[in-house]
Amino acid sequence: MSDIKKVVLAYSGGLDTSVILKWLQVTYNCEVVTFTADLGQGEELEPARAKAQLMGVPDKHIYIDDLREEFVRDFVFPMFRANARYEGDYLLGTSIARPLISKRLIEIARETGADAIAHGATGKGNDQVRFELSAYALDPNIKVIAPWREWDLNSRTALIEWAEQHQIPVPKDKRGESPFSTDANLLHTSSEGKVLEDPWEETPDYVYSRTVNPEDAPDSPEYITIDFTKGDGVALNGEAMSPATLLTALNELGRKHGIGRLDLVENRFVGMKSRGMYETPGGTIYAAAHRGIEQITLDRGAAHLKDELMPKYAELIYNGFWFAPEREMLQAAIDHSQSRVNGTVRLKLYKGSASVVGRKSPDSLYSERHVTFEDDAGAYDQKDAQGFIKLNALRLRLLAQRDSGGA
Amino acid sequence: MSDIKKVVLAYSGGLDTSVILKWLQVTYNCEVVTFTADLGQGEELEPARAKAQLMGVPDKHIYIDDLREEFVRDFVFPMFRANARYEGDYLLGTSIARPLISKRLIEIARETGADAIAHGATGKGNDQVRFELSAYALDPNIKVIAPWREWDLNSRTALIEWAEQHQIPVPKDKRGESPFSTDANLLHTSSEGKVLEDPWEETPDYVYSRTVNPEDAPDSPEYITIDFTKGDGVALNGEAMSPATLLTALNELGRKHGIGRLDLVENRFVGMKSRGMYETPGGTIYAAAHRGIEQITLDRGAAHLKDELMPKYAELIYNGFWFAPEREMLQAAIDHSQSRVNGTVRLKLYKGSASVVGRKSPDSLYSERHVTFEDDAGAYDQKDAQGFIKLNALRLRLLAQRDSGGA
Amino acid sequence: MSDIKKVVLAYSGGLDTSVILKWLQVTYNCEVVTFTADLGQGEELEPARAKAQLMGVPDKHIYIDDLREEFVRDFVFPMFRANARYEGDYLLGTSIARPLISKRLIEIARETGADAIAHGATGKGNDQVRFELSAYALDPNIKVIAPWREWDLNSRTALIEWAEQHQIPVPKDKRGESPFSTDANLLHTSSEGKVLEDPWEETPDYVYSRTVNPEDAPDSPEYITIDFTKGDGVALNGEAMSPATLLTALNELGRKHGIGRLDLVENRFVGMKSRGMYETPGGTIYAAAHRGIEQITLDRGAAHLKDELMPKYAELIYNGFWFAPEREMLQAAIDHSQSRVNGTVRLKLYKGSASVVGRKSPDSLYSERHVTFEDDAGAYDQKDAQGFIKLNALRLRLLAQRDSGGA
Amino acid sequence: MSDIKKVVLAYSGGLDTSVILKWLQVTYNCEVVTFTADLGQGEELEPARAKAQLMGVPDKHIYIDDLREEFVRDFVFPMFRANARYEGDYLLGTSIARPLISKRLIEIARETGADAIAHGATGKGNDQVRFELSAYALDPNIKVIAPWREWDLNSRTALIEWAEQHQIPVPKDKRGESPFSTDANLLHTSSEGKVLEDPWEETPDYVYSRTVNPEDAPDSPEYITIDFTKGDGVALNGEAMSPATLLTALNELGRKHGIGRLDLVENRFVGMKSRGMYETPGGTIYAAAHRGIEQITLDRGAAHLKDELMPKYAELIYNGFWFAPEREMLQAAIDHSQSRVNGTVRLKLYKGSASVVGRKSPDSLYSERHVTFEDDAGAYDQKDAQGFIKLNALRLRLLAQRDSGGA
What pLDDT score was predicted for residue D406? Predict the structure, then answer.
């Protein structure tokens, strides 16, 4: 064991991180500072305070922060400006929360003079990578403790036994094997493991917690509008809202209409495939709306460059490189494109789908004058198309002449 | 007018191309060969024969070909291997049909000794570009006549007047302004213009012709399976099918469940934005299924490279560069990745959505042994993750040391 | 002829643009404003004033501007931050000058109330595209006159005859066919045409004007240093210099040592291949130096992203899209990477080569502690490499197991 | 120590791998099979046999293979088809040899029934990654022993002491600290460490072993031709040669003229920067020639796609992913482009430079007819350029209208 004096633990108040809290005290004989973040996961946080106190953490070392606005404003919205999707579909709900948690862990480490941080992510997943890359990028000298990679509590039974030996209360429902593992924040809830481990088996309905089954959603569609300013959502149905308030309201709409369920087999950064279930109700609506407003306000060159850069950008976030220079470079390019992404998108929500049905903008690049089948009063000279085609074709004709063996 | 002796016309039998047929005879004083393709657009083609005969085209110069299998096998399926979507959403239903029509036009020109081809695409759209780039790529010396860029029949009234002056029958429903313009083939139907020209207005339901309104779709979901071999669909619900048969059957399923409607403002190659409505019922189901089977059979490196290349590949097809070397290079890379994309995908179809709910494969790369939360019997050593993270973090730590001004 | 009242002409004072000046007056019966830019081409500009006056251009309509500092500071240096090379080798010396000329043409058009601009680029080359795309991007309503695409003076003889008919002095050395065509500015001189048209024939030595033949360069190498701040050169051999002064001094060094000659067959945007000879003496030294300083100050992630984006960035500049949003987005990404690109590069100049032999920086990321073969005092734990390799290999092993048919 | 029965060691016969041989015998108490490859490194290999015998390796377990033709044909040439350069300059001479060595190690492991391989690369470098990723990709169950990451012989003195204790002969010149470390094969020689560790200090001339100092090279240039077939070199000065013979001959020319020296600070895959010196005499000439023949035989679309893919392709090889699916996909795309890359390139070799001065091909796409400044007999209609520019400008004009606030 290296020489650790004080460690800041990402602490949820649940069984696993309570065991870790104790294990850190016992194993490293060090002070533990707990950090519990409200990222909109929908759980009460005060119980975490009581539990930490119970394990002897002094009040000044118990941090409980509401990070919801910062989360949406500085992480979720910038990411959605890029229309980021990992492997075609995943909206990166877990990935985007990790760097913020690490940022706060490092800040608290500085405030409290801690020399280490600790987290409860396992050695098989992406989250350990995301936590640690962010932490190292923000403080190159920080030490990181990842108990799941260190201890030998490698079965549920061993963990619970250890808890009981150390007077950690074990809730009844944790005694049996939990059927799957979940992570939640304002953007999404993810589940994986156990009943989800066979990718041929349909995800049971009870795994979903953030959305009604589309079959149980209202039989009539609901229409909404979202307003955007510089690429970020600012109002719902005409009512101005802060980032977190807007996402919360969209989550409610998504829940009601069964929007944002995703069943995915994805490639983890550590090299294996895993099967996950994601619910991103508000984010799914928001993503559709953002593409909708870009359709009329972004130039083709900007739009296509964004589409080309997106897979790499999404991969960087998925792999934990939020605080890497290349992510920041891509963000600079993306943000540059959003200065005129202003306007209103109208969407239809219905039984699992969020469809753009209208968009308007004072900054629209759509020109009815140019596109019309009617008389366009000289806006566009169809004869220009001939030269355009001829010169685009020239290299293909030279190729064809070469390949057919003559002019 | 340049010196044209014989021209092959892409002829639908409709009013516009009938006017063009006559206009070519009158204006160029040349022979016209008509070519009518069955691409699955769902219209009878024999009336085209009668109309061509009526305008004096000899039987040997009337070509009516069923290209449905070639279309799906050699164009649609290769494109879907790439998961191609233009601007995030458009499945390229019109774009992918054009190169095949041009290929056949050039073949017929060779068979009949024609020196030119003609088409009915306007000077504002993408189709003229797609037709002509493909034609030039296949025959660098072919001449191309695009009447819409040449004549002065620039209003509906003018066109109809000209038709009547030249004894071309004008169907009653063509006398008024048509409310929008459509294109159809086995993959999709697109509509644009007129009632669709205001991108804020919702597409009226009567514009859709290939799908029921999701609100009118069955209240119970339907489950299906699609089998893939080397990245191509080969069976529906266990029943082997040819490419066109499979797509036809999926279209029927998509129609029933209201799947594949898309309202899009897109960027045309010629430089303007246009608003289109697309219905791609079977293609939307197929696209989801293809991603599903790739999830368990494609390695991450291959999958991510495909995602990075896709926007460029889709843009090439959209812009008409199917027969360009760079599209062929990308196809070679994509096809290389598909050799083990075999297996079965299970989908749930319900009120507008096609969702993958299961996938299995003899070539699966998903390893439950590695991913399990349970004891993995040594398949994966969690301690490896530490070194993995440490070396991935090294450059970020060196950066942080530099940027904070010291080690 | 469309209705033009006043046109701003990019005027060199040479025979061709003098003919154009007159031709515009005669053909359009409009006022002509002349604009002559000093971009460091090394020609006296005052003769252009006298010639314009001779053709009746009033003094207030004669613009002669020294744009050298703006050229290097706002165009050349930003481009070199990207390490831009078109088709692997071309340093874009002509391409990068065109947008600045167009910018000034449009400014002068606004100042003088002109409704059009004119340039002397032919209809076969890239420069017409570059001039006009930039002009349209800066003023969507500007009219553009490109005489070489309009008139019928399509041979040298015809041009000279027309000049004589219109009392335009024809210098003796212009009477015969010139052996090739050149363009020059502070960054480079290019030549093409005539003796260069056979790509198998070596470029004759007399074509080069900015560099000595390496065989005639000094027999001893010369060592120099260039200092960089935020990615831009700021000093030569320790002496602070403005951008244009620095490039001028490097040109002198490059000339002396025969550096920066390039014989290239390139692909023009208009679709054909052309063979060009380029001399970029100072730019070649500067480009090597910029890469040198980036080697120690740029993080790998940033450096590799830059390398991946570069070909597209270079293509955009080559094709004339300097003022397009996607070029600006890429520039935002590139500039973001340069904030710590500070330090000094040492180069050896010798008979055609500029080689980086040393680099140092207060912002260096190079860590001798980490890389040393000697005892590194724990800076790097070699055991971390095992986990790093194991997890990078995991997907490859899963693939190999699948492909060999078993675990 | 895990349970190893037989290990195949990549054995050079030098001191380090001799120590490893013995260390494996002593530490793992296992049989050792030695594999010594002739990759053109220019050393006699038979002494390696005697040394292995001396340490008790039976003859049937001593493999000495001449892999030079396979190396150039199946690894070097395919890589040069891509014009691969890592970080702008490095021709990947070490990187490309590693996968071949691993391939042969795995083959020999199969032939001899070995369950492990071992190599002499350290835990700080790229080569360990390259060896092991390739090995795992070819045999997912192989065990890998990397003594430098395992043992505690972490100083030169410790190694030599251990050698002497175990009766391994230590050559006199190995007793002192060697001034730098080298790797060599037919493509290049690299050196790093010691005197090279300060990136501000010029590489001393004695570090170079494969090239004369350009200052000592002949004072007159030498002209050569290289013929290409399908993107691969097949003849020098008209004389047909096998791949390895051609590269050997080019190395001799490069040596004589001082061509291919490179002083680089590069980013290692393991996260640190290192400074290396590379000599790639023949490869540098060959790379220039390959670009030269592509200039006239590759279409622009193909050429630009290759340039865009190249940085990723080079990174994959540098990082050790030769046997990864994404490298193979890129190779498929690249190879597709080379089918008509045939012809002859003429180069001038002079004091450190290899410059293309001429290229010709039966498959040339260069069209003097199109590019000429003279009368082109209608090959190209300059008026087409207007439409081409107009439509390329349309989106920029719509942007400018929007951004200036009006039409």
Answer: 52
Residue with tokens 């941080």: A117
In whole angstroms, give the CA distance from residue D18 to residue D54. 10
The answer to whether residue B83 neighbours chain A at the CB level (below 8 Å) is: yes
* Beta-carbon contacts of residue A341 (< 8 Å; ≥ 6 apart): A81, A228, A230, A231, A293, A294, A297, A298, A363
Instruction: Out of D365, D392, D403, name the one closest to residue A399 (CB).
Output: D365
Question: Are A389 and B128 a contacting pair at CB < 8 A?
Answer: yes
The encoded tokens of residue B374 equal 């349970």
Residues of D in contact with A365 (CB under 8 A): 395, 398-399, 402
Residue C330 tokens read as 């890429």
- pLDDT tens per residue, range A250-303: 999 999 999 999 999 999 999 999 999 999 999 999 999 999 999 999 999 999
D274 in active site: no
Length of chain B: 407
Question: Residue D177 carries which DSSP code?
Answer: P
How far is it, in rounded angstroms, from Cα C120 to Cα C148? 7
Please give the structure tokens belonging to residue B288.
């989801």
Helix (H) or strand (E) holding D316, with range, is helix D300-319
* Whole-structure pTM value: 0.97
**Contact criterion met (CB below 8 Å) for A267 and B300:** yes
| CA–CA distance, C288 with C233 (Å, rounded to integer) | 12
D274 is in an annotated binding site: no
Tell me how close the Cα of A174 comes to any Cα of chain C, in angstroms: 31
Instruction: Give kind and range of the element (H or E) at residue B183.
Output: strand B181-184
Distances (CA, A) of D314 to C23, D96, D171, D183: 53, 10, 37, 19
Instruction: Quote the minimal CA–CA distance from A237 to chain C in Å.
Output: 31
Chains linked to C by 3 or more Cβ pairs within 8 Å: A, B, D
Residue range A59-108, pLDDT digits in tens: 999 999 999 999 999 999 999 999 999 999 999 999 999 999 999 999 99
Instruction: Look up residue B90 and give its DSSP letter.
Output: B
What are D223-281's pLDDT values in tens digits? 999 999 999 999 999 999 999 999 999 999 999 999 999 999 999 999 999 999 999 99
- Residue A74 designated active-site: no
- Domains, chain B, ranges and CATH? 6-76+93-174 (3.40.50.620), 181-298+340-360 (3.90.1260.10)
Instruction: Tell me the average pLDDT of chain C.
Output: 95
Chain C residue at shortest CA distance from B301: C395
Chain A contacts in chain D segment 304-363 (CB below 8 A): 340, 363
Tell if the CB–CB gap between D149 and C383 is shorter than 8 Å: yes
Find the mean pLDDT for residues D108-130: 97
Chain B closest-CA separation from residue D384 CA (Å): 14
Burial class (CB in 10 A: 0-12, 13-18, 19+), D10: buried
Phi (first) and psi of residue A146, to 5 degrees: -120, 85
Contact assignment for D403 to A300 by CB distance below 8 Å: no
Residue B375 has pLDDT above 80, yes or no: no
Rounded Cα–Cα distance for residues D284 and A329 (Å)? 32
Structure tokens belonging to residue D87 = 């970080």
pLDDT digits (tens, 9 = 90+) for C115-136: 999 999 999 999 999 999 999 9
Q: In chain D, how long is the greatest CA-to-CA distance?
A: 88
Hey, of A365, A368, A369, A401, which one would you mutate to test binding to chain D, going by the most D CBs within 10 A of its CB? A365
> Which residues of B does the annotation place in the binding site for ATP?
10-18, 37, 120
Q: How many CB atoms lie within 10 A of CB B177?
A: 13
Q: Active-site residue among A115, A127, A227, A232?
A: A127
Tokens of A147: 């108990």
Whole-complex ipTM: 0.96
Q: Is A18 annotated as a binding residue?
A: yes
Residues B303, A148: C-beta atoms closer than 8 Å:
no
**D353 annotated binding-site participant:** no
